[in-house]
């Protein structure tokens, strides 16, 4: 038998043996060193590639859809408003432009060290203030217009003039001033009557004298100060009352307009029956790069009355491709950026002054416009960048929920008719705000303007909507095994595999389905059940025949005669188990019970 060391002794002896052992140890150590260095390098690279804010906790109420459009749901998370930052940091203007930074709308990248500071300062504005402070307030931007738009000639002599109204509450100095400067640089002088800044009771010190001084150097710009925080509605009304231009153009305080932005807005707003919105591009909240947003989008809302960007109707898409420079209708506006003839704005009742701080005013205005004989449109020829934020950085007096629900309740009570009942019935948390609203003057306004019903609006302005109606079936579709058809809360997006949903919680949205006369199974967020490759999926409602389901007794059949089946594997009720379309059999899993639920 060989001794344990026998192999060694056979291979080499004495000094030689030592050298071999040492060499092996050295090689192993060197390998370890290289491996660790490589891993370290990769980790740093990976971190660099990811936007730094990925390490922060975000509101799940926002997502980027497959076309790259940020879909903002709303700011239901109140901001920390500076968190633990020192008074000095909160109140200081650190604008220090670096030559070339962000020029041409390009992103600004920060060093590792700066990224740490940027992260600390993020809660102040919910965008990267360090980057904003490095970019000149006069920076250049690309021309994002299509060729067709560039060809359009406007007769400047005959366009109405504009008052641009920018309201702000504790905005960053550089971002606010860049908004102002972009308007000054890129608006034909004869069309720009004035810019009115309305300070909605900001308390950041750099927005006092320092802003006054900067503005005093500019022509046509003035500041109004709200002594008390009113919110964006109160502040915009204050600006509108002082406007001397023919058209009111509202902008948020973190926008940048691009070449040719004003002419198409004024051209359309001149007609006196339309609220016209620019095409809103994205200013990255991370790098402030100017990013083109998808060509075809329009604004609408979910069952919870959250604003949504959606793909427009087929008809609108067709017209858009035939004539890309022509404004197209939208069921709702995002709210921050639009133009309207002053006379029309006041004739239709301005804004609802009962709305406080933030939220729902865009839906209220959109419904009011459409229902009372005007229109809401988007022109892709006017391109304005806006920083879409994931969080609202402000304080909401009384809490964000109270503010938002009160505003939503007002809008619903005045304009939504039967659908207000639907909204309150399935959003019980908002229902308690319903009776607290004094809206007599707004209802009076609706009467005086002889406005049409919400049903008319849904039918005519947004026939593709996914709300229940009297000629659509509404309720729960429950499998013999127990699980229901529906989408889990939070799974917004496109092309999600469909699974059985727990439908024992009665008031939940998740398992409520609209079944249309043409055979579409719709749920909230405009998703329709679609026959996939075997597996059924939830996809944006479209004209696809794969979204048509025919009810044959207790079965739901696809166009090619397959049966909707719950593939029970996980538990006896099939909750969380896949929905597929399969050959029809005598099978419990293909049996569905239709439990109608009154929708109002
Ligand atoms: N704003 C205001 N007072 C408030 C809240 C907001 O003047 O109490 C301003 C804000 O500075 C911005 C505009 O209203 O210019 C719209 O608000 P925000 O940008 O937060 O809304 P979003 O674009 O995120 O929907
Ligand atoms: Mn905004």
UniProtKB/TrEMBL annotation:
Domain Glycosyltransferase 2-like residue range list = 163-348
Gene3D superfamilies assigned to the protein according to its UniProt record, in alphabetical order? 2.80.10.50, Spore Coat Polysaccharide Biosynthesis Protein SpsA, Chain A
Q: Topology relative to the membrane, per the entry?
A: Single-pass type II membrane protein
The record lists the membrane-crossing segments as 20-38
Cellular localisation: Golgi apparatus membrane
Recorded GO MF terms: carbohydrate binding; metal ion binding; polypeptide N-acetylgalactosaminyltransferase activity
Q: Name one GO cellular component term.
A: Golgi membrane
Point out the signal peptide segment. Answer: none
Predominantly, its location class is Golgi
List the InterPro entries.
GalNAc-T, Glyco_trans_2-like, Nucleotide-diphossugar_trans, Ricin_B-like_lectins
Gene Ontology biological-process entries: protein O-linked glycosylation
Q: Name one Pfam family in it.
A: Glycos_transf_2
Cofactor(s) recorded in Swiss-Prot or TrEMBL: Mn(2+)
Enzyme Commission number: 2.4.1.-
Name the UniProt key words of this record, in alphabetical order.
Disulfide bond, Glycosyltransferase, Golgi apparatus, Lectin, Manganese, Membrane, Metal-binding, Signal-anchor, Transferase, Transmembrane, Transmembrane helix
Looking at the record's lineage, which domain of life comes first?
Eukaryota
Per the record, the pathway is:
Protein modification; protein glycosylation
Q: Which family does it belong to?
A: Belongs to the glycosyltransferase 2 family. GalNAc-T subfamily.
PANTHER family annotated for this entry? N-ACETYLGALACTOSAMINYLTRANSFERASE (PTHR11675), POLYPEPTIDE N-ACETYLGALACTOSAMINYLTRANSFERASE 3 (PTHR11675:SF118)
Question: What is this protein's record name?
Answer: Polypeptide N-acetylgalactosaminyltransferase
Upper lineage: Eukaryota, Metazoa, Ecdysozoa, Arthropoda, Hexapoda
Q: Which gene encodes it?
A: LOC111353765
